[in-house]
Amino acid sequence: MQYIILDLEWNTAYSNKLGHFVNEIIEFGAVKLNNNFEIIEDFSSFVKPQIEKKLRSRVKNLTNISNEDVANAETFEVVCEDFTNWVGDLDNTILLSWGDMDIRVLIDNCKYFFNDDPHIPFVMNYVDLQAYFMSEMELPKGQQISLANAASLAEIPTDEFSLHRALDDSELAAICFKRVYKKENFNKVIVTCDDEFYTRILFKPYVISDINDKLIDKTQFCCKCVECGEMADQTSDWKFSNSSFHAMFICRDCNIKYRVNVQFKKNYSQLNIKKNVIAIKKGEK
Prior knowledge:
Blueprint: E1 2-15, E2 20-33, E3 39-46, H1 57-63, H2 67-71, H3 76-87, E4 93-97, H4 101-113, E5 125-128, H5 129-136, H6 147-153, H7 166-180, H8 183-188, E6 191-192, H9 195-202, E7 206-207, E8 233-234, E9 239-241, E10 244-251, E11 256-266, E12 271-280
Parallel strand pairs: 1-4, 4-5
Antiparallel strand pairs: 1-2, 2-3, 5-6, 7-11, 8-10, 9-10, 10-11, 11-12
């Protein structure tokens, strides 16, 4: 088995064809690790922009990549083919990236340049290294840690690395990976990149705004008084604004008014519900 850690840099480019912005990849960087987690090969290539020729100032300042660096590079199609050949044995390769944003950007670029085909040609097995690192370090799931902060947490010096450059970031991510690797735990998070993988990663979470949507759990549309524990009476209709449903209630025994906010957010495999019950003080609305 070989491990490949990939990092990408991209430019935010406006596509006239699509009518919206696209994160166009401008640099590939990767390292190939053997079973001892030693770097045995690396890959580094600029990518010639085709959607927008000039790089944004923010991108140039962040990455130190210039327009001249990418102007004479190969196109995404060519670099993607070169990278696939460099990877080699796809069935015995696990690709890792720091967070899944690189994978999402790769999918967008593949769709754009390969006639709406989202499939990444060099990914068969995948691990989100950021999520795996956070799990091993027992960090909160809702938190996202940058590569630089992860290295600091793992007491890995970063002085010799040029952060926000693809090859250097992949090399630093490889050190973080080796520092936390535990075979049994790691094997549990390897994902096969089948059709379900693409369906899941392309799914865009959304907040439900239709109160009659079949996913709505209407048992959440109630209010229990925090003082007496009895059910409060609803005094207004449910309305939707600011990503949540809200209505007013009153506990007549305690003479306390409440505002209840309920949000239903659909993720790929579950429905997340957030509910807030707020007591209204006198003079407030």
